[in-house]
Amino acid sequence: MKLLGRTALVTGGGSGIGAGIAERLASDGAPVLVADINLEGAERIAAGIRAAGGQAQAFRTDVTQEADAAAAVAEAESRFGRLRIAVCNAGITDRSPVLEMPFAAFERVVRTNLFGCFLTAQAAARAMAQGDEAQRGGRIVTISSVSGQFGGTGRAAYGASKGGIEMLTKVLAVELAPLGILVNGVAPGPTQIARTAHGPRQRDAFLNRMAVKRYGTPADIAAAVAFLCGDDCGFIAGHMLNADGGFAAAGVLYD
Ligand code: NAD
Questions:
Q1: Nearest 10 degrees: CA dihedral of 49, 41, 116, 150?
Q2: Which residue, judged by its Cα, is nearest atom 28 of ligand 1?
Q3: pLDDT at 136 over 90
Q4: Is residue 229 pLDDT above 90, yes or no?
Q5: 138: left (phi over 0), alpha (psi -120 to 50) or beta
Q6: Theoretical Cys-Cys bridge with 31: which of 55, 77, 95, 190, CB 3.0 to 4.6 Å?
């Protein structure tokens, strides 16, 4: 119960990695607002957390909308008390090659992943910065991807959005640490979620680069997030923690 009573907001908490993060923070004692554009998914995850004895509430939010970000923070605080943790996890992808990608597709991905991350982090930070030194503070965790660190085919919008999140994480950390708000990020490698549909070629290419010869699970990523939200992490700011089975460690593989 390392996060007992620390109100948390998890965007994109209605499925996949975000659901794993919401469940993990709740099992560590945090009351969690499970915020997602897919309210049905968020409700299912929140109900599962409550059935397991945790505290959770679903909330519909679109991370691309500034008013939604403020509303999610206000809802979390009115239900559970002062916001202490925000995880900017909601994200989408588009694998179109550059020559075929309509601008609208590029814009949609960057708007959701990068702008959405900014809006959630900003709304959370505004709440966490309220009050005197004893009252203010919190943790913000962004979710990037190894695609924000490496080039690759079909990654123009997604990779650019995630690379942007990595720099945004550093800037947020520098500006907010003096207010007691620690900002860090987690960069997952290939992680198995319900809708993962990688063909054998892609799967082999990923596994070949991963020293730990398996895909990650939402629980693997959630463990890294929980560490960054807890008291064991008091002197880390602006760090991108790769939870990727060694993907980023591998350069050219000779055999
Ligand atoms: P997912 O599709 O299961 O989860 C994404 C969630 O975000 C969904 O519940 C979706 O409804 C929600 N969402 C989408 N647009 C939204 C919006 N505008 N407002 C609010 N919610 C919105 O996929 P996932 O793999 O769990 O992705 C979670 C995060 O992890 C993303 O940021 C993704 O880029 C990142 N990531 C995933 C992997 C992987 O292999 N699965 C690897 C690296 C990074």
A1: 90
A2: 17
A3: yes
A4: yes
A5: left
A6: 55
Q: Which residues on neighbouring strands pair with residue 142, listed in sequence order?
A: 88, 185
Above 80 in pLDDT, residue 111? yes
Residue 97 class from Cβ within 10 Å (0-12 exposed, 13-18 middle, 19+ buried)? exposed
Quote the CA–CA distance of 192 and 197 in Å, as a whole number: 9
Q: Which amino acid makes up residue 152?
A: G
CA distance 87 to 18: 8
Q: Is the ipTM of this complex over 0.95?
A: yes
Residue 253 is predicted with a pLDDT of 80
- Strands 56-60, 32-36: pairing is parallel
Closest by CA to 85, choosing from 24, 40, 16, is 24
- Give dist(CA 142, CA 144) in Å, integer: 6
Q: Which of 10, 11, 15, 60 should be mutated for ligand 1, with most atoms under 8 A from CB?
A: 15
Please state the atom number of ligand 1 nearest to the C-alpha of residue 62: 19
Catalytic residue among 106, 158, 215, 247: 158
Residues 199, 254: contact at Cβ < 8 Å?
A: no
Tokens of 63: 């991370």
Average pLDDT over residues 197-207: 90
Mean pLDDT of 26-40: 98
- Cross-strand partners of 58: 34
